[in-house]
Amino acid sequence: MYSKETTCVHNQxxxxxxxxxxxxxxxxxxxxxxxxxxxxxxxxxxxNAIVDKLCRxxxxxxxxxxxxxxxxxxxxxxxxxxxxxxxLFSQEIYGGTVKLIEEEFPKYNIAFDFVSSADIASxxxxxxxxxxxxxxxxxxxxxLSVVDLEAVSAVxxxxxxxxxxxxxxxxxxxxxxxxxxxDIVVHSGTKYLGGHHDLCFGAIVTSHRLKEIIYxxxxxxxxxxxGLDCYxxxxxxxxxxLRVEKQNASAMxxxxxxxxxxEIATVYYPGLQQHPNHEVAARQMKGGFGGMLSxxxxxxxxxxxxxxxxxxxxxxxxxxxxxxxxxxxxKSSHANLPEEERLALGIRDSLLRLSVGIEDAAxxxxxxxxxxxx
Length: 374
Ligand SMILES: *Cc1c(COP(=O)(O)O)cnc(C)c1O
What we know:
By secondary structure, the protein is an alpha/beta fold. The protein contains 14 helices and 12 strands. Strand 4, helix 6 and strand 5 form a beta-alpha-beta unit. It starts with a helix and ends with a helix. Pyridoxal-5'-phosphate (PLP) binds near residues 68, 94, 137 and 190. Its cofactor is pyridoxal 5'-phosphate. It comes from Pontibacter toksunensis. Pfam families: Cys_Met_Meta_PP (PF01053).
């Protein structure tokens, strides 16, 4: 087996070209062929090339690629659930996933609980007779809490639950949930895997057995990715390790510097010794602590002016790309939450979430410090 850097670059498939040829055909000859080739059958060469690479990066047996992260997440959940089932979710998960659960599950009589994943003991006490899935995300958005994945997988195994982890923030370069006993990894490829703010896709990696179940539902839900975008994903993956390693290093530098800055009240970054889950993070994020960090200005009144004064860093939604972006979760990703709920999650107006890109870390830091001072 090769290192992740090498795996990102090289395809295992034997083909003449260094890159997989773009295959866009939706009508394909069937006579004399065993398999019906069709994009929504998730079986084109472009789809297979990406899946093969992601499986090797995530150390899983099988995978699939989807047209968005939400298509991947919705397909995984609905392929295992039926009326009367119950699911445990951690509290701090992606807003779109929360919306899916709260708006769709009641229509199908699927019950759920949101629990603080920091407290694995309380998670176990909420497992019911009909609980089927335990679903978490680490590091979380936007406070970068770290969930102990070995503890989650232990609870899942004990109660025969399917464990699912959204590994979007960590990327397979930094963290491999399957090696920690997790059953299914999901990704919003729109973020780090794509990495250039120009692609929307999702992915899953799991065992052969679970993939077969997900695959049968995926054929019905139809969230496949087209050949042209697959080609761009394949190109993006070649630089994934390179990008993430740079983002890890820059985020660490920026987090450490911001922590010393008197204008800043708190920094949230799992790589800092002071982070409440640093020990767990160091144990399970073997590749690095990621490119996401959050911080709060000492003076909340200055937040908007600070964002306006940034010259280099772009106030924008989404994350994980080569350009550094920043957002104020209370006014963007979490704006629809009632204030009370938002504050209960620890998301105050003063909180800013930074997605560190691949620019020079010193330039980024200077941009932040200048905007804070003036
Ligand atoms: C963006 C995101 C998603 C949703 O992915 P889309 O590609 O936008 O559908 C899911 N999980 C996390 C952690 C995300 O950041």
